[in-house]
Automatic annotation (TrEMBL):
<protein>
    <recommendedName>
        <fullName>Carboxypeptidase-like regulatory domain-containing protein</fullName>
    </recommendedName>
</protein>
<dbReference type="Pfam" id="PF13715">
    <property type="entry name" value="CarbopepD_reg_2"/>
</dbReference>
<dbReference type="InterPro" id="IPR008969">
    <property type="entry name" value="CarboxyPept-like_regulatory"/>
</dbReference>
Length: 231
């Protein structure tokens, strides 16, 4: 009888714990201007999964109930609306772009873009960097010298490389997570970012690897990391 009560108690604890992980999580974030890094007040933040919404305060901060796999929509204040996907808990820093403003691409700015903004910039760079375009009057393709040799076309193709690299890194990082690395190694919170950056696996590996393959990769990479960074 005692064993039965114990089993029921354990099941209840597991149920409550899993319930807390799925519901009632409060996500905190800060919204910035991409160019100036100024914090933005009065930006509407809406959870598209629950329709709950809030606004950023005078310091750009917001709190909203959200969990993994939810989408947040940010809009208002003269900035282009943007959508972010929640795939990991923790403080979110969101950077918005002013309406009608041309984005200056570099590695620092690209890391600040939300996934939806990154996708739109990739599409824009692909279009601006095309050297050929369809000709409706004459049929077939027509090479555009301005796009092929012009500064805008060259810059767009350079931007595209940076943008795609960032997109691929994010795809990898959603699997190669801090939590997974922390569960398998004694790395500190200060060391994990260095480890992730130095030993990030390739996109092709992540797309084909099994969970066991990934665990072996982390274990072997940690051994190499310690050889290169002895305590």
């Amino acid at each position: 009888m005692k064993r039965t009560y114990l089993s029921i108690t354990i099941m209840a604890i597991v149920f409550l714990t899993s319930g807390l992980s799925a519901f009632g999580q409060e996500l905190k974030g800060v919204v910035y201007d991409l160019e100036s890094s100024n914090k933005l007040r009065g930006i509407l933040v809406k959870n598209l999964s629950t329709n709950k919404q809030t606004e950023t305060d005078s310091e750009g901060n917001f709190k909203i109930e959200a969990k993994a796999n939810d989408y947040l929509r940010l809009s208002g204040g003269g900035y282009e609306a943007d959508t972010i996907f929640i795939y990991e808990q923790g403080l979110r820093r969101v950077y918005l772009v002013r309406d009608q403003e041309t984005l200056v691409i570099n590695e620092v700015y690209v890391t600040r873009l939300s996934d939806s903004r990154l996708a739109s910039e990739i599409a824009r760079a692909k279009n601006d960097g095309k050297a050929a375009e369809a000709s409706q009057q004459r049929g077939g393709l027509r090479v555009s010298p301005s796009r092929l040799f012009g500064r805008r076309g060259k810059q767009a193709r350079s931007n595209l490389d940076i943008l795609i690299t960032e997109r691929d890194n994010r795809t990898v990082d959603r699997v190669f997570t801090n939590q997974l690395i922390r569960s398998m190694t004694p790395l500190t919170d200060d060391e994990i970012p260095l480890f992730r950056d130095g030993y990030r696996p390739s996109l092709s590996f992540i797309q084909s690897a099994s969970p066991e393959d990934l665990r072996i990769y982390i274990s072997e990479s940690y051994t190499q990391y310690r050889k290169e960074n002895p305590k």
